[in-house]
Amino acid sequence: MIASLQVYSMEHALALDEANEVIQMLSTDERDYSAKQPPHNTQDPSTSQSVPSKRWREKVSSRICLVRAVRSLSQEHTLSEILSNIDKTHNGKPIFKELPFDFSLSHSRGVVVAVAVQKLRNRAIGIDIEVDPHHSIESFARVCTQEEWSAIQSMENPIDRQSAFLRRWCAKEAYVKALGEGLGYGFKNLEVRRATDTQPSDSPSTNSKEATRPEAWTMTDQKKEPTQSHPIFTWGVDSTQHGANCLSIAYPSFSLPPNEGLEQQKPSLEFLINDGQGFPDFEQLSF
Q1: pLDDT tens by residue, 24-46
Q2: Looking at the whole model, is its pTM more than 0.90?
Q3: I need a labelling partner for 247 at 20 to 30 A (CA). Which of 62, 132, 255, 278 fits?
Q4: Count of the separate structural domains present in the chain
């Protein structure tokens, strides 16, 4: 199964050809809502021009990423068709009303991401990105299982601890987004582990070529009966310049009636990643 992963700096996304058309597709309510979000539109003193709010720029650049993600999988759908199909579930999860794709969006500190994949009845996809977060991981111990927290605290290097925590945090965020749930789902019920002993250790790799390939992790959800492990695909890049950064994609499966067993298969994901200035090419970004 091919999944399209599009990652851009916000400013690069807004400079792409699709930007003007995406802006025109925003509803009046969306434009008004985005403009009122803090920080409010401000005036650039060097040009005396109004600068759109961060919320507005996030919405536009995220939708540009989504359009590119879908169109890299199928050229049959126009930009307007893609954007007009966006809807939400009763839990607020973004979905397509009719298009045969599942998708997820995320953003962090000026980086926007979108992932899209062919829709399956027993699968959902979720994505999360964290770029150089400044919070203390100690304040988030409550979201880790005892085994996870012990593994994190056993690391001597603070950057390694931050990276190990981010891998788990991003995985859990991506998973609950795939389910269409919020933070109240209970992160402590979720345990994240490397998929096999042959995978890299929790300590991050500084090799840029290795960093462009996802690590295979698994998520065990203790709230589901029977307990089941789900695949997690994680990229992590760490450097003294950028700090700890992580992107995770969750692709959990759901049980279907026995007579629908053909869809019970667990397809692995292969990622089609954009060539633009974005994760995992952190050297091309300004954080």
Answers
A1: 888 665 655 555 554 444 555 55
A2: no
A3: 255
A4: 2
